[in-house]
């Protein structure tokens, strides 16, 4: 249980806390933050801060593990699991709140499970699937889109540009493309052994 794995576990532990603030009904909180047409409740602001904190640890644990030669099998299992749990939990919560279309959440979550399955097949064959360029872009776009949805499109709400909607659509499209990219580049793993 080294430092990178502890950081990853901390990311997992932040998920229920984030959901508590995101989905809880906190009538005792002060009035929502209001600025013209913009409005954001304090509990959703706290949930957004927790999400950004958790998402920021994604690169930190991997960087420390590689730089200081602390890569472990536990870390290889926990890191992608933590990412998928974080994204899945917040997307399902956003669907519950009516801020994200359910089909987008289904597409993104399904891709994550499909690529995880492909990674497991690769491991059984003794191969390691490195993160692709499109996979990294997908992660960044998802984090930006989810953050904008959590913050009610701040600051673009003031100029009436639905950047949150555009970003989540972009995240869905890039997620689909990156998933296809993984399967095309690793199609030999899916071929049946006729021997």
Overview features:
195 residues, mainly alpha, 69% helix, globular
Calculate the terminal CA-CA distance, rounded to whole Å: 41 Å
**Which parts are unreliable, with pLDDT below 50 for 5 consecutive residues or more?**
none
Cα Rg: 18 Å
- Count the DSSP helices: 6
Strand portion, in percent? under 5%
**N-to-C series of helices and strands:** HEEHHHHH
Classify the secondary structure makeup into a structural class: mainly alpha
Strand order of the largest sheet: 1-2
Mean pLDDT: 89
Helix content: 55-70%
Largest sheet: 2 strands, antiparallel
CA-based shape: globular
- Give me the count of strands: 2
Briefly characterize the structure.
The protein is mainly alpha-helical and 195 residues long. The protein is 69% helix and 3% strand. A hairpin with a 2-residue loop joins strand 1 and strand 2 (38-40).
Structure description:
- GO terms for molecular function: CDP-diacylglycerol-glycerol-3-phosphate 3-phosphatidyltransferase activity.
- Its main location: membrane.
- The structure is a single chain.
- This protein has 195 residues and is mostly helical.
- It has 6 helices and 2 strands; from the N terminus they run αββααααα.
- It has helices at 3-23, 42-67, 73-96, 102-124, 133-150, 163-185, and strands at 33-35, 38-40.
- Strands 1-2 form a two-stranded antiparallel ribbon.
- A hairpin with a 2-residue loop joins strand 1 (33-35) and strand 2.
- Helix 1 (3-23) runs parallel beside helix 3, helix 2 (42-67) runs antiparallel to helix 3 (73-96) and helix 3 runs antiparallel to helix 4 (102-124).
């Amino acid at each position: 249980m080294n430092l990178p794995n502890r950081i990853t576990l901390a990311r997992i532990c932040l998920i229920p806390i984030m959901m508590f603030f995101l989905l809880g009904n906190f009538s005792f909180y002060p009035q929502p933050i209001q600025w013209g047409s913009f409005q954001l409740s304090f509990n959703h602001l706290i949930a957004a801060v927790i999400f950004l904190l958790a998402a920021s640890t994604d690169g930190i644990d991997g960087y420390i593990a590689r730089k200081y030669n602390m890569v472990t099998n536990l870390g290889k299992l926990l890191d992608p699991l933590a990412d998928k749990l974080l994204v899945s939990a917040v997307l399902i919560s956003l669907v519950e709140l009516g801020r994200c279309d359910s089909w987008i959440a289904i597409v993104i979550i399904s891709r994550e499970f499909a690529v995880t399955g492909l990674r497991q097949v690769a491991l059984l064959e003794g191969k390691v699937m490195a993160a692709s360029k499109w996979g990294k872009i997908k992660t960044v776009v998802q984090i930006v889109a989810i953050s904008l949805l959590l913050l009610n499109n701040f600051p673009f709400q003031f100029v009436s540009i639905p950047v949150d909607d555009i970003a989540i659509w972009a995240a869905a499209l890039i997620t689909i493309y990156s998933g296809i990219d993984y399967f095309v580049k690793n199609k030999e793993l899916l071929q049946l052994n006729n021997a």
